[in-house]
Amino acid sequence: MIRYTIRRLLMLIPILIAVSLVVYFIVDLAPGDVVDVIAPDDASPEDKELLREMMGLNDPFIIRYARYMQGLMRGDLGKSYVNNRDVFEVYFSRLPNTLLLALAGAFVAVLIAVPLGVVSAMHRGSWKDAISMIFGLLGLSMPNFWLGLLLIIFFSLKLGLFPSYGSEGWSSIVLPAITVGTAQAALVMRTTRSSMLEVVRQDYLRTARAKGVPERTVIYKHALRNALIPIVTVMGTQLGVSLGGAVFTETVFAWPGVGRLVVDAINSRDIPMVTGCLILTTMLASFLILLVDIAYAFIDPRIKARYTK
Amino acid sequence: MPIIQNETDKKAVIKRYKRRSMWAEVWRNFKKSKGAMTGIIILIVVLSACTIGEFIYDYHEDIVKQSFDQRLLRPSWKHPFGTDQYGRDIFARILYGGRYSFSVGVVAVIISFSIGTTLGIVAGYYGGVIENIIMRITDVFASIPSVLLAIAITAAFGQSLLVLMFAVGVVGVPAFCRVARASVMTVVGQEYVEAAHAAGAKNWQVLIRHIVPNSMAPIIVQCTLRVAQAIITASGLSFLGLGVPTPSPEWGGMLSDGRAYIRDYSYMTMFPGLAIMITVLAINLIGDGLRDAMDPKLKR
Fold first, then answer.
1. With an 8 Å Cβ cutoff, is A194 touching chain B?
2. CATH H superfamily, domain A99-259+285-308
3. pTM for this prediction
4. Which pLDDT band holds residue B237 (cuts at 50, 70, 90)?
5. Inter-chain residue contact B266 with A153, CB threshold 8 Å
6. A248 contacts in B (CB within 8 Å)?
7. DSSP assignment of chain B, as one string?
8. Inter-chain contact B148–A157, Cβ cutoff 8 Å?
9. Fold (CATH) for B45-64+77-298
10. B14 pLDDT more than 70
11. How many angstroms separate the CA of residue B243 from the nearest CA in chain A?
C-alpha cells in the first residue's frame, strides 16, 4: 500500500513538470509588454530596455523557464506585476476560502444526491425516479454562474435571506455552496442511481432480506456501502474540477478565493500570478485525485488486495 | 402444418428477420426514447427560431444599435424579453446570439474530435511506445483543470470567436483521446480483426474497414455530450469577459451585462441563462438517448 502510494507520487512528478512547461509556454504567448505597465510614464525607451534586461525578459524562453523552475523548487513563484506581492503567499492566503467552498459544495451535493439517487434506483421507473432524473438533467444543463445569479435574485434580493456577495459569516457561504453543489449533485445522483441499480441485483441483498433484515438496513448498509466506489470516484474528480470551476462561482459571489484571483490576474495581465495560480491549482487537483485513488482501498478491501500484491 | 401458410405470413416473417443495419437499429431504439425525441424537438425549435432571427433582424439596426430612449424597458408585447441598458431588444439579441453558442459548440467539438480521436485510435491500435507517449501527453493536458486551461489560452491569443472555439476545442481533446483508445482496445482483440489480418489486409485497411467503424459508438455519444459541455464553457468564458467580444450578443456576455442591473432589472439575467439551459438540456437529452440506443447494455 505504501509502495503503491510512493509509486503514484513519483509518477506525478514528470507530469507536473510537463504541466508547468505547458502553462508557462501558453501564458508566455500572451501579448503585451509588462515593462510598459510597470515603468513610470516618463520612462525613456532606454530606461525601459534597461528594466527589461534587469528583469531578464530578454533572455530566451528556455533560460527564463529554467529560472522559473529553479524558483518553483524553492517555493518562489516570483512577485505579482501589479502589487509586487509574493505569488506563493497570495495563492495560499486565498486557498482556504476556495477549499472551504469546494467542501461545502461537496457536502450539499452528497446531501441532495445520494438520497435522491437511492430513491430513484429503488423505485426505478416510478414518478419518483422520473423526478430525480429530471432534476439530474436540469442540474447538468444549467450553467452554474446562471444558477448563482438566480439564487441571488430570489434568496438575497427578493427574500433577503442571505448576502449576495462577500465572505463574512456563515450565511454568506450558503448560496455559493448551493451553486457549486448543484452541478455536482446532478452527476453524483446519476452515478448513485446507476451504481445502486448494479448492486440491487446481487444475491447478498436477497440473502439479507431473507434473513429478515429490515429494508432500510438492507438499502443503506448492504447496498449503498457496496455502491460507494463509483460515487467516491465522481466526488473526488469533482473536487478537483471544482477548484477550477470555482472561477465562475467566485466571480458571481465575489468570493475571495483562488478562482477570483486567476480572473483578476488575467484581467490585469499579471503574468507571474496567472502562471503561478495555474500551476499550483493543477498540482493540488492532481494530489486530490491521487488521494481519492488511495481512499478506495479503505472502502474496498478487494482493491487493497490488488495494490499490495 | 407449416408455420408459414400464405403470402402475408411470409412477408411478415421476412420483414421481421430482415437484416437491419446498425444505424437502422440505433434509430429504432432512439425513436422509442421519449427524452431523446423531446430533445430533438426542442433543438429544432431553438435552431429554427435562431435561423428566423437571422432573417428578420439586421445586425447593425436591431442587434447592436443603441437607442437610449428605449433603455431598460421591462418585458412587453413590443419587447417580449425587455430591453437592455443600451435600449437593445433582448429577444432579438438572444435569437441572434444563438449562432455563437451553436458554432462554438460544434466547431470546438470538431477540433477535439479530430485531434483526440485520431490520437486515441493510434494509441489503442499500435500500443507500446507510441501509446505511452500519446497517453502521457494526454495526462498532462487532462490534469490542468479545463476551465483554467481555456482561460489561459484565451488570455494568450486574445479575444475572438476563433480563439474561443480553439480554446474550448483543445480542452476537450483528452476526453476524446481516452474514450477512443478504450473503445479501440476492446475491438482490437476481436476475432474478425484477427481474421482480417490473417487474410492479408494491411494495417491501415484493418484500421479503416474494421476498427474505426466498430469503435465509433461511444465516440459519437461523447460528441453530443461534449457539444453541450462546450456551449456551457464558451458562455462561461464570455461571462468572464474572455469570450466573444462585446457588443456581439453572446448569451454568456449578455448574462454578464445583466449582472450589473440584477437588483432592479432581473429579467436581463433570466432570459439569456434560460436560452443556454434549454439548448444544453436538449443536447443532453439527445446524447442520453443516443447512448441508450447504441448500447442497450448500458441502459439503466
1. yes
2. MetI-like (1.10.3720.10)
3. 0.87
4. very high
5. yes
6. 147, 236, 239-240
7. --S--SHHHHHHHHHHHSPPPHHHHHHHHHHH-HHHHHHHHHHHHHHHHHHHHHHH--IIIIIS---GGGTTPPS-SSSTT-B-TTS-BHHHHHHHHHHHHHHHHHHHHHHHHHHHHHHHHHHHHH-HHHHHHHHHHHHHHHHS-HHHHHHHHHHHH-S-HHHHHHHHHHHHHHHHHHHHHHHHHHHHTSHHHHHHHHTT--HHHHIIIIIHHHTHHHHHHHHHHHHHHHHHHHHHHHHTT-SSPTTS--HHHHHHHHHTTTTT-THHHHHHHHHHHHHHHHHHHHHHHHHHHH-GGG--
8. no
9. MetI-like fold (1.10.3720)
10. no
11. 13
